[in-house]
Amino acid sequence: ADSAGAARGLQGRAPAAATALTIPPGTELGNRTHVLVFTENAMGEAAAGVAAAVADRVLPDVAVDGLSFIDQDLGTGELGGRVEWREPADRASVERYVLY
């Protein structure tokens, strides 16, 4: 749904004592931008609900290759030098590289 509730797609109902509902993995997002929660009773659904924006993110499914490092620090037990790698061919899901 959008923040106003247009294009809603029912994801489930939870009992009044519940404070969470799980949307199954693989549920199609389509053009929806928000999740909505409305209260409901035997008379029907409340006129207004609460909306939260969807942050649809995925973990990167690619890795660097060609990793190389030559220690140029002359001290024992110390490291220093340039770490190099080849970037993945598809960087669409990569925001940064993390070195440990």
Detailed description of the structure:
Residues 1-25 are annotated as: Disordered. Residues 14-25 have a biased composition (Low complexity). With 100 residues, the chain is an all-beta fold. The chain has two domains: 1-56, no CATH class; 58-100, no CATH class. Helices cover 0% and strands 21% of the residues. The protein is built from no helices and six strands. Strand 2 (40-41) and strand 3 form a beta hairpin. The protein is elongated and about 75 Å long. The mean pLDDT is 92.
Task: Describe the structure in brief.
By secondary structure, this protein is an all-beta fold. The chain has strands at 34-37, 40-41, 44-45, 50-53, 65-69, 83-86. Residues 1-25 are annotated as: Disordered.
Name some characteristics of this structure.
100 residues; mainly beta; 2 domains; two-stranded antiparallel ribbon
Strand content: 15-25%
H and E string = EEEEEE
Can you tell me the residue ranges where pLDDT is under 50 for at least 5 consecutive residues? none
State the end-to-end distance.
Answer: 40 Å
How would you name the oligomeric state of the polypeptide chains in this document? single chain
Q: Can you list the strand order of the major beta sheet? A: 1-4
Provide a count of the helices.
0
Largest sheet report = 2 strands, antiparallel
Structural class computed from helices and strand pairing: mainly beta
User: Number of DSSP strands?
Assistant: 6
Radius of gyration: 24 Å
Overall geometry comes to: elongated
Approximate helicity band: under 10%
How do the helices and strands line up, and which of them pair or pack?
Elements: E1 34-37, E2 40-41, E3 44-45, E4 50-53, E5 65-69, E6 83-86
Antiparallel strand pairs: 1-4, 2-3, 5-6
Biased composition (Low complexity): 14-25
Region (Disordered): 1-25
